[in-house]
Write a structure and sequence with these properties.
Chain lengths: 220, 465
C-alpha cells in the first residue's frame, strides 16, 4: 500500500502552482465574544432545554437532594456510577441511603465483561461534565478510566453534574484554550447537546434514537 | 436499471407520491436553514471564513495529509491509503479477515456508498448493517440513499410502516414515528453488541492532533466507533482540516446548512484506540484515506474547488430540479448540484456527462453553499468541456448554437433574421417541438426592438423639426 501512498501524493503534488503557506485563521469577533456572567447560565439553560434536555439548578448545596428526588419520581433502580470521584461518591452515598432497593454498577471492568449488563440492566448513569457551552447548550465530556465512553451512551437516561463556573460562552473559546494539553489529545472527547434524536422518518423529530432517551443536567 | 437519465427523470416526475415527499422535505429543510442563518451579516462573515479555511486545505492538501498520517500513527491509529474504491474495499476486507469478522456495523458514510462497500463485503460473506435510522430503512428496502444527509427522505411514514411490517414482520400503529424508531433502536442495539467491526465516515480530520471528528444526532456513530473491538474510519482525502481552531466555524456552517441545527446532539472527537487503563473503546483504529479521483480534481485549477465541499446537502435542498426529480433519478452516489459536479469528474464526462443537463443555471445552489463553491460556474465549465469533447462530431445542439452565434456576430444578418421571425410569427405555434407538449409556443413580436427604437427616434426627430 506504500505504493498507493506515493502515487496519491505525487498526483496531489502535480499542478501545485500556488505557495503552500498556511492562510492565517482568525476567528470572527462573535465567536470569541464573552457573554456576561449573568447571562451565561440563563442562555445555557435556554439552549439546552430547547434541545429537549431537562435542567435543574441547585443552590450549591441541595444537588444531591435533587438527584434523590429524580430517583424517586422515576423509580430508576439500577444506576451506573463511577468510583473515586468525590462529587460522584457523594451522590452515590446519598442515593444509597435514600432507598434501600437501589442497585449500583461501577464501570470498573472492561466493556466486554460488562456489556450485557450495560445494555440490559442499567436504568440511569451519572457522569461529570468538564465544561459547557452557553451559546449552543452543549456539555463537554472527556471520557477516561473513571468514566468510560459508554457511560454517556448506552443507558436510557444520562444524568450530568455540571459546575456553574465551568460554563463558557462559545465553542471557539474551548478550542482556543483547550482543557486538554493540545499536544496529546484525550482518546475521546464528546460534545453533547441533548438526548439522542433523529428526524429520518418524514422529518418527524423522535428522541431516543440510539443513545439516551433523556438527558438530565444538574447545575451545581 | 438499464434506463438512462432522462428516462429516470420521466419516471420520477410521473410519481406523484415521490414528488409530494420531496417537496415537503425540501421546504422543511430550507425553512430550517433560513431560520438558523437569520442574521444575513453573520452568514456572510461565517461563509467567507468557511471558504477561506477550505481554500487553505486545498492548497496544502499533500502536506496536511502527511501531517495527519504522522499524528494518527503517533496516536496509535493505523493509516491506509487507497487510490480507488477497489483498493479501499480490499483494505477493509483484509482487516475484517484478520479479525475473522462476519458482522460489521456501519455509521453513516457517503464515501462507503461511493465505493459500494456493503455489496463488496456481502460477496465475501460479511454482513454489513447500516445503523443510521435513514440508512437502515433504505438498506431494508434494498435501495440507495436519495439524499446525502437524510437518506430515506423519499419515503413517508406510511411507506416505512409498511416496509417494517413486510421485512421485519413488526406491526406498528399507523403514523407512529416513535414506535418505528423504537423498533430500529431495539434491533440495532443487538447488532452493536454483537458486531466485531465498526465502520464510520469522517466529517473532519484534524491534521495537527490526528483527530477524527464525527457529527451526528442519533448516537449510532458513537456506538459504531466505540462498541466493536475494531473501528475503521473511511474518509475522502479532502476532509482534512489543519487544526481544531477552525472546527467551530466549519461545524457551525455544516449543521446549520444541513438541518438548521446550531449544533448536533453529538460531536465526537476520536484521537486513538483504547488506552491500557481505559475500559472501553476499540482496541484498533484504522483510517482509510480514499483518493478515488480526488487528487486529479485538485490538479485542475478551474475545478479544484469541488474539493471544498463539506457535504451539507444545502445545494440539493435549494435545487429546483432535485426538488422535483429526487435523488434516485441521478443514479449516482451524490445527487443534486454537487453530485452533478463530482460524479462526472470521478467517473468521466463521457460516462456521466449527461447529469450536467439537469440544471437550469438558476444559481440557487451557489447562493446556498456555505463554503462559497461557485457550483453554477463549475457546472458551466464541465458543460463546456463536455461539449468540446463531443462536438467533433456535429450534434444538432452544436449546429444550432453555431448559427445563433453567427447571427449575433453580424448586425445585418441579425436584422434580417429578426425581420424574418416577425414576418413568420404566425407559424410558430405549429413548429414541431417537445415544448408544445405542455406549454404554448411563444410568438415573436410584430416588430423587433431595434425597429421600434428606430421608429421612435424618427418620430422624435420629426417632432423636433
Amino acid at each position: 500500500m506504500n505504493n498507493a501512498r506515493t502515487r496519491i501524493l505525487s498526483r496531489l503534488r502535480q499542478g501545485q502552482h500556488k505557495p503552500k503557506t498556511a492562510i492565517p485563521f482568525k476567528a470572527r469577533r462573535l465567536e470569541t465574544e464573552h457573554f456576561e456572567s449573568g447571562v451565561i447560565k440563563a442562555l445555557f439553560i435556554d439552549q439546552l432545554r430547547e434541545s429537549h434536555a431537562e435542567v435543574y439548578e441547585s443552590d450549591g448545596e441541595n444537588w444531591s437532594e435533587i438527584i434523590t428526588q429524580i430517583a424517586n419520581e422515576n423509580s430508576f433502580k439500577t444506576w451506573l456510577v463511577a468510583k473515586n470521584l468525590p462529587l460522584i461518591e457523594q451522590t452515590y452515598k446519598t442515593l444509597k441511603s435514600s432507598q434501600n432497593n437501589l442497585s449500583f454498577i461501577h464501570y470498573d471492568k472492561d466493556y466486554e465483561t460488562l456489556k450485557d449488563c450495560l445494555f440490559k440492566q442499567v436504568d440511569a448513569s451519572i457522569t461529570l461534565a468538564k465544561a459547557a457551552i452557553a451559546e449552543t447548550g452543549t456539555l463537554l465530556l472527556i471520557p477516561d478510566k473513571h468514566e468510560p465512553r459508554m457511560m454517556s451512551l448506552i443507558p436510557p437516561v444520562h444524568i450530568v453534574l455540571l459546575k456553574q463556573s465551568d460554563i463558557v460562552s462559545s465553542f471557539q473559546q474551548i478550542v482556543d484554550q483547550p482543557l486538554w494539553e493540545s499536544t496529546a489529545m484525550p482518546t475521546n472527547i464528546v460534545f453533547i447537546s441533548g438526548p439522542s434524536k433523529t428526524a429520518d422518518i418524514q422529518q418527524t423529530l423522535a428522541y431516543g434514537a440510539h443513545g439516551p432517551k433523556r438527558l438530565i443536567v444538574i447545575i451545581i | 436499471m438499464g434506463i438512462n437519465f432522462s428516462q429516470r427523470i420521466e419516471q420520477a416526475l410521473a410519481d406523484s407520491q415521490l414528488r409530494t415527499n420531496f417537496r415537503g422535505a425540501m421546504n422543511f429543510l430550507r425553512n430550517k436553514r433560513q431560520l438558523a442563518f437569520s442574521d444575513e451579516q453573520e452568514w456572510q462573515v461565517l461563509r467567507k471564513q468557511g471558504a477561506a479555511i477550505r481554500q487553505d486545505v486545498i492548497q496544502r492538501l499533500p502536506e496536511l495529509l502527511i501531517q495527519l498520517e504522522q499524528q494518527c500513527l503517533q496516536n496509535g491509529i493505523q493509516v491506509h491509503w487507497a487510490q480507488d474504491g477497489d483498493q479501499a474495499n480490499e483494505i477493509i476486507l483484509k482487516i475484517a479477515q484478520n479479525q475473522q469478522s462476519k458482522r460489521v456495523i456501519k455509521g453513516k458514510s457517503m464515501a462507503s456508498e461511493e465505493i459500494e462497500l456493503n455489496d463488496f463485503l456481502a460477496k465475501h460473506d460479511i454482513e454489513c448493517i447500516e445503523s443510521d435510522m435513514g440508512e437502515y430503512i433504505v438498506q431494508l428496502d434494498h435501495e440507495k440513499p436519495s439524499h446525502i444527509i437524510m437518506p430515506a427522505i423519499h419515503k413517508n411514514t406510511a411507506q416505512i410502516t409498511a416496509l417494517f411490517e413486510k421485512k421485519l414482520g413488526i406491526k406498528t400503529p399507523e403514523g407512529d414515528v416513535d414506535a418505528l424508531i423504537g423498533v430500529g433502536r431495539r434491533i440495532l442495539r443487538e447488532k452493536f453488541e454483537q458486531a466485531d467491526i465498526g465502520i464510520s465516515g469522517v466529517n473532519f480530520a484534524i491534521a495537527d492532533t490526528g483527530t477524527l471528528c464525527l457529527v451526528e444526532n442519533e448516537g449510532n456513530g458513537r456506538l459504531s466507533t466505540t462498541a466493536p473491538p475494531v473501528h475503521i474510519a473511511l474518509m475522502g482525502l479532502e476532509k482534512v482540516i489543519p487544526n481544531i481552531r477552525v472546527l467551530p466555524t466549519l461545524q457551525r456552517l455544516l449543521t446549520r446548512s444541513a438541518t438548521g441545527q446550531h449544533i448536533t446532539t453529538y460531536l465526537n472527537l476520536i484521537s486513538g484506540p483504547r488506552k491500557k487503563d481505559e475500559r472501553d473503546g476499540p482496541k484498533e483504529v484504522h483510517l482509510v484515506l480514499l483518493d478515488n479521483g480526488r487528487a486529479n480534481i485538485r490538479q485542475d485549477e478551474k475545478l479544484q474547488n469541488t474539493l471544498a465541499c463539506i457535504r451539507c446537502g444545502a445545494c440539493m435542498n435549494h435545487c429546483p430540479v432535485y426538488t422535483r426529480i429526487g435523488g434516485h433519478a441521478y443514479g449516482s452516489t451524490y445527487p443534486g448540484p454537487i453530485g452533478q459536479v463530482v460524479t462526472p469528474q470521478l467517473k468521466g464526462l463521457a460516462e456521466e456527462g449527461e447529469l450536467l443537463d439537469a440544471c437550469s443555471l438558476n444559481g440557487a445552489c451557489g447562493e446556498a453553499c456555505p463554503v462559497e463553491i461557485d457550483l453554477p460556474e463549475l457546472i458551466r465549465t464541465l458543460r463546456h468541456r463536455r461539449q468540446e469533447s463531443i462536438s467533433k462530431t456535429w450534434s444538432k445542439e452544436a449546429l444550432i448554437w453555431l448559427i445563433w452565434a453567427k447571427i449575433h456576430q453580424h448586425p445585418k444578418l441579425y436584422q434580417q433574421a429578426t425581420q424574418l421571425a416577425a414576418t413568420l410569427r404566425g407559424l410558430t405555434p405549429y413548429i414541431p417541438s417537445p415544448w408544445r407538449k405542455s406549454r404554448n409556443m411563444p410568438k415573436p413580436a410584430k416588430m423587433s426592438l431595434h425597429q421600434q427604437v428606430k421608429d421612435r427616434s424618427n418620430i422624435k426627430n420629426r417632432a423636433g423639426n
